[in-house]
Design brief:
By secondary structure, the chain is mainly α. The chain contains three helices and two strands, in the order E-E-H-H-H. Strands 1-2 form a two-stranded antiparallel ribbon. Strand 1 and strand 2 form a beta hairpin. Helix 1 runs antiparallel to helix 3 and helix 2 runs antiparallel to helix 3.
């Protein structure tokens, strides 16, 4: 039994093997597009959650900066030389915290860059899907024309085999 001989009856309408193949190809293309879309949105959600977690764990440095400035002012006002070491430690700690904060911001920028790349990839996938859908439509049109030609040939042969009626 070949693909041309295969026939399915649905609701009184019969579908031949070529139609079945076209419908099957179309359905698999649609399901692939749905899967790709689902995968894309899943990845975007994971990236958004990661960025939100990073923002929640990022410490607020404003109070430390204010406190450090107050300490510097007191040292300068009171000319307390023995607190010079503590001030250096605080300055180093603040520098370290600022460096860590910059790392977190850089990681967030990298995540944003990845999201932008994924958006570009999704647009490419969507464009490829449109091209495939157009190609399938063209194929369906060609198959329809071919079917009409075959039907016309059969009608012609029927007419030629019984010229009287």
């Amino acid at each position: 039994m070949s693909l041309e001989d295969t026939e399915i009856n649905v609701g009184g309408t019969s579908f031949k093997g070529a139609h079945i193949a076209v419908v099957l190809a179309f359905v698999t293309t649609i399901s692939g597009g749905i899967w790709a879309t689902s995968e894309f949105f899943s990845r975007v959600a994971v990236l958004e959650d990661t960025v939100a977690e990073l923002q929640e764990t990022m410490p607020d440095l404003t109070p430390l900066e204010v406190e450090l400035e107050a300490i510097k002012t007191k040292i300068e006002d009171n000319d307390l030389g023995h607190l010079q070491g503590k001030l250096a430690e605080l300055s180093t700690l603040l520098t370290t915290i600022q460096a860590r904060q910059q790392e977190v911001l850089d990681n967030a920028a990298t995540s944003n860059s990845k999201v932008a790349t994924m958006e570009k990839d999704w647009i490419e996938v969507r464009n490829e899907y449109k091209k495939m859908a157009d190609a399938i439509k063209g194929f369906e049109d060609s198959v329809g024309k071919f079917k009409r030609e075959v039907d016309d040939l059969w009608k012609g042969l029927d007419a030629a085999s019984s010229p009287l009626g």
